[in-house]
Design a protein that fits this description.
The complex is a heterodimer of chains A (265) and B (236).
Chain A: H1 5-34, H2 38-44, H3 48-58, H4 62-83, H5 88-106, H6 109-117, H7 125-154, H8 156-161, H9 166-207, H10 211-236, H11 240-264
Helix pairs in contact in A: 1-7, 1-9, 1-10, 2-5, 2-9, 3-4, 3-5, 4-5, 4-9, 6-9, 7-9, 9-10, 9-11, 10-11
Chain B: E1 6-17, E2 20-31, E3 35-39, H1 46-53, E4 60-65, E5 71-74, H2 88-99, H3 103-113, H4 117-120, H5 129-141, E6 147-151, H6 159-174, E7 178-182, H7 186-192, E8 195-199, E9 204-207, H8 209-212, H9 215-222
Parallel strand pairs in B: 3-7, 3-8, 5-6, 6-7
Antiparallel strand pairs in B: 1-2, 1-4, 8-9
Helix pairs in contact in B: 2-5, 3-5
The chains are: A mainly alpha (265), B alpha/beta (236).
């Protein structure tokens, strides 16, 4: 397949953005595992769909619609976890599955496939700026707050007595989750973006021997899966989302198999 | 002899969770550099009391710490799965950076709790019960606490491990740290505590161990007869 200079530039910039988003997703995902919200992180992406549907109906920017819905979703988890005794997973199971249904009803069938699985159309220049800035901001937040996040998710009571504002930090973390999902929707869609947070982190968990290794492993695996999936999507003319998740899942099962073999040996 | 200053004053504390009253109208004072053991049957609200004191659970009433109090908290269990790739050093280093303490302070805390960096380089899931509890105590000590809250710190630890942990805590108390511990081990309470706070739905008291640990009072606290043998400890 040959590319013209302008289409190559667009593809390259879109590729760079996708890898930046994947690194952010890998870092956020490592802490999602510690927070025991793997299912919640996965299903959080579904809540973007009603936002996309409304944005399409109102003919406003789809990314803006998705961000609005995801931030609302993150705030909902944060508030419900504190006001009820339900876990994040239970809340997500009920509320966000409904969001997926509502979103599907609001979106036409043509747009639905892209919204659900990602289309990987070239990003506009402002989307590139927003995307790279957002991804860099999330990476900076996770790296700067990693000690406080670790203590908070290890024991919120220990964190509290260490002077950490647990509620505020948890809110910022959930907003980071929402933002990373919003930024990755273009590539993986509402149905699969959460997987990019969870699968690389779950893979890194099997090989890492420290928090630092888990964070680095998760970010690298997410970036690798995204790069491989995007390249395959371009070569095979398929939606990028399923291919990125297939690459991440393949990595997970290979690592699991190797680990079992080593244990057996 | 003058009364020791109060490290913690609790007055009319009531804890209501989702419409269920866990503790009602509890009042007590904790003297500085004392060791208060909180006893009571399972479900009586001991952990809820600790979590309420540190502000993790809503309550009504007055909880007043002495000015300048620095809290150290050792929880009964962690919120995360133990088999995640988190090492003892990860936890200790994170706690040290949040507290803003130096590497030499970390070294001194490790020697106080009797742990080496070799042991802490392993995953927390691979630590023995005693090593794990001493790690949590070490994390708590990094903030140079004036008051330590320990929620069943010796659960699941063998006898020598319990002894090491209790002696380490006693050393801290003798250095002026106020200690509050939840315990089901009445012989440890009798040996180390200076006061016993009994908590049940209908009964509460704050007494010296000799007065609190009587067959009659224990039977009342636990709602059934308790076999308890006292050895000679004239000062308690």
């Amino acid at each position: 397949m040959s590319l013209t200079a302008s289409s190559f530039a667009l593809t390259a910039s879109s590729f760079a953005l996708s890898v930046a988003v994947a690194i952010a997703a890998g870092l956020v995902g490592a802490f999602a595992l510690m927070r025991r919200m793997s299912l919640a992180a996965d299903a959080l992406s579904h809540v973007a769909l009603p936002g996309i549907g409304v944005a399409l109906l109102l003919r406003v920017n789809v990314l803006a619609g998705a961000i609005f819905a995801l931030v609302a979703g993150a705030l909902l988890i944060w508030a419900l976890e504190r006001r009820t005794r339900l876990s994040a997973d239970a809340i997500i199971g009920v509320v966000f599955s409904a969001a997926l249904a509502i979103g599907a009803l609001l979106t036409t069938s043509e747009e639905l496939i892209d919204a659900l699985f990602g289309g990987a159309s070239p990003a506009s220049s402002w989307e590139l700026v927003v995307g790279i800035t957002g991804a860099a901001g999330i990476v900076a937040f996770v790296l700067l707050a990693k000690d406080r996040l670790l203590l908070t998710f290890v024991s919120s009571d220990v964190a509290r007595t260490a002077g950490i504002d647990v509620r505020r930090l948890d809110l910022f973390y959930l907003l980071a989750c929402a933002l990373v999902v919003a930024l990755g929707l273009r590539y993986l869609g509402a149905l699969l973006m959460g997987s990019l947070m969870i699968i690389p982190a779950a893979t890194a968990r099997h090989v890492a021997r420290s928090v630092r290794q888990m964070l680095a492993g998760s970010a690298l695996l997410a970036a690798g899966a995204m790069a491989a999936g995007m390249w395959l999507a371009m070569r095979l003319h398929r939606e990028s989302g399923p291919l990125v998740v297939a690459c991440a899942s393949l990595c997970f099962f290979v690592v699991l198999g190797v680990r079992r073999q080593r244990r057996a040996a | 002899m003058p009364e020791p200053p109060t490290a913690l004053h609790v007055e009319h504390l009531t804890i209501d969770l989702d419409g269920r009253v866990i503790l009602r109208d509890l009042s007590f004072d904790v003297a500085t550099a004392s060791w208060v053991a909180v006893i009571g049957p399972n479900g009586s609200g001991k952990t809820v009391l600790f979590r309420s004191l540190i502000g993790a659970l809503p309550h009504s009433g007055i909880v007043r710490w002495a000015p300048g109090t620095r809290l150290g908290y050792v929880p009964q269990k962690l919120d995360i799965e133990r088999n995640l790739p988190v090492t003892g050093l990860d936890l200790l280093a994170a706690r040290a950076r949040v507290a803003g303490v130096s590497a030499s302070d970390v070294g001194s805390v490790l020697s106080r709790v009797g742990l080496s960096t070799n042991v802490l380089g392993g995953l927390i899931g691979d630590l023995s019960g005693g090593q794990f509890q001493r790690l949590l105590l070490g994390c708590a000590l990094l903030s140079r606490p004036t008051l330590l809250l320990l929620d069943e710190p010796t659960t699941g630890i063998d006898e020598p491990g319990q002894e090491r942990l209790n002696v380490a805590v006693q050393r801290l108390q003798r250095d002026g740290v106020t200690v509050m511990t939840i315990s089901h081990d009445l012989s440890v309470v009798s040996r180390f505590a200076t006061n016993v706070l009994c908590i049940t739905r209908d009964h509460r008291c704050l007494e010296m161990p000799r007065r609190a640990l009587t067959p009659e009072l224990l039977a009342e606290v636990y709602a059934e007869p308790i076999a308890f043998f006292r050895h000679d400890e004239p000062d308690r």
